[in-house]
Specification:
- The complex is a heterodimer of chains A (439) and B (258).
- Chain A contains 15 helices and 12 strands.
- Chain A has 439 residues and is an alpha/beta fold.
- Chain A folds into 2 domains: 220 residues, TIM Barrel; 109 residues, no CATH class.
- The longest helix of chain A is centred in the middle third of the chain and has 24 residues.
- With 258 residues, chain B is an alpha/beta fold.
- Helices cover 44% and strands 14% of the residues of chain B.
- Chain B has 8 helices and 8 strands, in the order E-H-E-E-H-H-H-E-E-H-E-E-E-H-H-H.
- In chain B, the strands form 2 sheets. Chain B has a 5-stranded mixed β-sheet, covered by helices on one side.
- In chain B, strand 4 and strand 5 form a beta hairpin.
- In chain B, helix 2 crosses helix 3 and helix 3 packs across helix 4.
- Chain B is elongated, with a radius of gyration of 22 Å.
- At the A-B interface, helix 1, strand 1, strand 2, helix 2 and helix 12 of A face helix 4, strand 4, helix 5, helix 6 and helix 7 of B.
Chain lengths: 439, 258
């Protein structure tokens, strides 16, 4: 294959092609890394991450998200850049990427760089280009902001290792929840080629932590950890399969984040779902909510789903769904319940639960106090008592509560979704749910 | 007892001095209030006292607060004092009283049952949220001499909180942030400490000249911003919810460039 890099192509033309091609990758976060500036260049990082803008789709723009090249030797069916597609191709040079990053960063447009790539010639060649680019950015330009780089499956482990010492975060996309699914969708990719670099990065991080305890000034290896993403809704996988894989990745591969990407049929592939109602955003939203429950609310996947009940209830969120199926646990007394139990109450998030535990030391709390603390009472009221009393007499009955909590509630008192549901169409989503928001 | 109002300047120094003066009265605290800025509607049967900002008194209060309530509570009080809300003086004052009398120390801000603490907590949170937003949404433009310039119009006085962030991040750059609502400037000369300029007579933003490359990078970013959105997921309501219009007014990608 020949690299068709047209010399007269402007940076603007390249950006058009290579940002457009990168937009389906959903990992946008710039969190997990905290570093002060050393005075030799620009940049630092903030643990919670920063979102510098929001696009017309309401998604956060934190990093300059681009592909190095959209040339690709692979033919993955879901991907716009697959070999068999006749799309305009372009490649940046390392210098162009560095200059764009530096100039955008100075103006506070971005928090750093997200660099991914199609496979040019072979995985090693591509990984070397990515590594060279990031190396230049860190050493020549002394850039100290956030860098997220993709590890190219199948690339030489030494190249991945080198890149890891320059990046804050690395990621390898799992793409499909099951190995069979991957084979069907991406005939050139193999599950083991994806898990190998993932394991390598995990080990790299663990070793680096040991090194850092011994030598405080040892270089950092992927300080912000690693992430991955799965496409949702292209194949008939159940939510239970997807969430079990996610749980495994968190437990066995120590991932920082798993992202879920509602399938968009960019290639209008006839064998893939046409999704006339748009991408499955509500399903994606439910998966993110459940993901939050795993990471911050101490839930296990088998509490939320089972083989017999393999998919999330679209009508209400997974936490409320768990609660109405476990009415025997409720109501819980706000002034006595332990933190873990408070977290299980719909309408109480991590922040409110912490505030409740702190504030009740000063005396018992009332419903008015809870409201000020940030508890969403219209959701919580079915599940709590304050000083032994419920907020007002209400039916404790599964069906009744579900009706009150669903987004379809006509009274406007149900769940607020971050997108409009007009008939069958779900429009837009974000990872931020008022209750789930954990910063 | 007659209600007593201490009127003070709208600044951290003003409020802390007034707190000192309130304690100096030795009359208890239940009937004493601190009012920021001049009263435009005097009450009958209430006494009004004026308090002038005083560095020594401020320092004494500051040290007591840090000692007895800790750095974190001090941070919350500073953020509340930077609020736009006129009731902030009274809230901060009575929060200090509550923390010191109850001896709740570092836990002072957790006593959300106390309405003053709650008010302070809310104001501090609101300022903190706006500071966080400004760290994200401030846009710099490069002037002819390579200086970076940014104009903001925040609800609260965020300058003392955003400058440290950018001074670290852009340590080797000359930059300034201009709060056009308050007419103040945060100025950072490359590799030096930042400082505040509040008197900038003769400064006219119209006279600023952008560098040769400024327009080019603005265009690249505006373009990037447009192209990165997935059209199947367009959602302007969510966009506006995440990025309120009052910030968009100052951002190049929403057409604010001059």
């Amino acid at each position: 294959m020949e690299a068709r890099i047209l010399p007269q192509m402007s940076v603007m033309d390249k950006l058009k092609i290579l940002a457009d091609a990168a937009k389906y990758d959903v990992s946008c976060s710039s969190s997990g890394s905290s570093r002060r500036n050393d005075g030799t260049g620009i940049g630092n990082t903030v643990a919670a991450g920063l979102c510098h803008s929001f696009g017309a789709d309401g998604r956060c723009i934190s990093l300059l998200k681009i592909l190095f090249t959209n040339e690709c030797i692979y033919d993955c069916r879901y991907c716009i850049n697959r070999k068999s597609n006749d799309v305009p191709r372009a490649s940046f040079t390392p210098d162009e990427v560095c200059e764009l990053t530096m100039e955008f960063y100075r103006r506070n447009y971005i928090e750093g760089l997200f660099l991914s790539s199609g496979i040019l010639y072979n995985p090693d060649y591509t990984m070397e280009l990515l590594c060279e680019t990031v190396h230049k950015l860190r050493t020549v330009h002394r850039f100290q902001g956030y860098i997220h780089v993709k590890a190219i499956p199948g690339a030489d482990p030494r190249l991945i290792q080198q890149t890891g010492y320059l990046a804050d975060r690395m990621s390898v996309n799992l793409e499909m929840a099951t190995a069979d699914g991957l084979r069907e969708m991406a005939p050139n990719k193999h599950r083991k080629n994806i898990l190998r670099p993932m394991r390598q990065i995990q080990n790299g991080i663990t070793e680096n932590k040991n090194e850092l305890t011994l030598y405080r000034h040892a270089p950092h290896f992927c300080e912000a950890g690693q992430s991955t993403q799965m496409v949702v809704g292209a194949l008939p996988e159940s939510d239970f399969q997807i969430m079990s894989v996610a749980e495994n990745l968190y437990d066995k591969f120590a991932l920082k984040r798993v992202y879920y990407s509602a399938f968009v049929n960019v290639n209008e592939d006839r064998e893939l779902p046409a999704l006339s109602g748009g991408p499955p955003l509500l399903r994606e939203h439910r998966l993110y909510q459940a993901d939050w429950l795993l990471r911050f609310y101490d839930f296990k996947v088998d509490e939320l789903l089972t083989v017999d009940r393999p998919n999330f209830n679209m009508a209400i969120d997974p936490k409320a769904d768990w609660a109405v199926r476990h009415l025997e646990v409720f109501p819980v007394e706000i002034n006595r319940a332990d933190y873990r139990l408070l977290l299980r109450v719909p309408g109480i998030g991590v922040k409110s639960a912490r505030r409740i535990v702190a504030a009740r030391r000063f005396g018992s709390l009332t419903f008015e106090d809870l409201k000020k603390i940030g508890v969403v009472l219209k959701r919580a009221l079915y599940f709590i008592t304050c000083g032994g009393r419920m907020m007002y007499p209400t039916k404790i009955e599964e069906e009744y509560i579900v009706r009150s909590l669903t987004y379809q509630n006509q009274m406007g008192k149900g769940e607020r979704l971050p997108f409009l549901m007009d008939g069958t169409t779900y429009r837009q989503i974000s990872l931020f749910d008022e209750e789930m928001g954990v910063v | 007892m007659e209600e007593k109002y201490i009127i003070c300047e709208d600044s951290l120094e003003g409020i802390f001095t007034a707190i000192y003066d309130a304690y100096a009265l030795r009359e208890g605290h239940g009937h004493i209030h601190i009012q920021v800025g001049e009263e435009d509607n005097y009450r009958l049967f209430a006494a009004y006292v004026h308090s002038q900002p005083d560095a020594v008194k401020t320092d004494k209060v500051l040290r007591t607060v840090k000692d007895r309530l800790g750095e974190e509570v001090y941070g919350s009080l500073c953020r509340a004092a930077a609020s736009y809300d006129r009731e902030k003086g009274d809230a901060v004052y009575h929060t200090v009283v509550d923390g010191i009398t109850a001896g709740s120390g570092r836990r002072t801000m957790e006593n959300l049952r106390n309405p003053y603490v709650r008010k302070t907590f809310e104001l501090a949170r609101r300022t903190a949220n706006e500071v966080h937003h400004e760290l994200e949404f401030i846009r710099f433009q490069e002037l002819e001499q390579g200086v970076l310039y940014s104009k903001i119009g925040p609800e609260n006085n965020v300058m003392p909180f955003v400058m440290p962030h950018f001074s670290d991040r852009l340590s080797i750059e000359n930059f300034m942030i201009h709060d056009e609502k308050r007419g103040i400037f945060g100025v950072h000369p490359a590799k030096e400490e930042w400082y505040l300029v509040s008197d900038a007579e003769g400064f006219n933003p119209q006279e600023l000249r952008w560098s040769r490359k400024e327009r080019q990078y603005q265009e690249l970013f505006i373009f990037f911003h447009k192209i990165i959105a997935i059209k199947e997921r367009y959602n302007s309501r969510l966009q506006q919810q995440m990025l309120p219009l009052r910030f968009q007014d100052y951002m190049v990608e929403f057409g604010s460039n001059e």
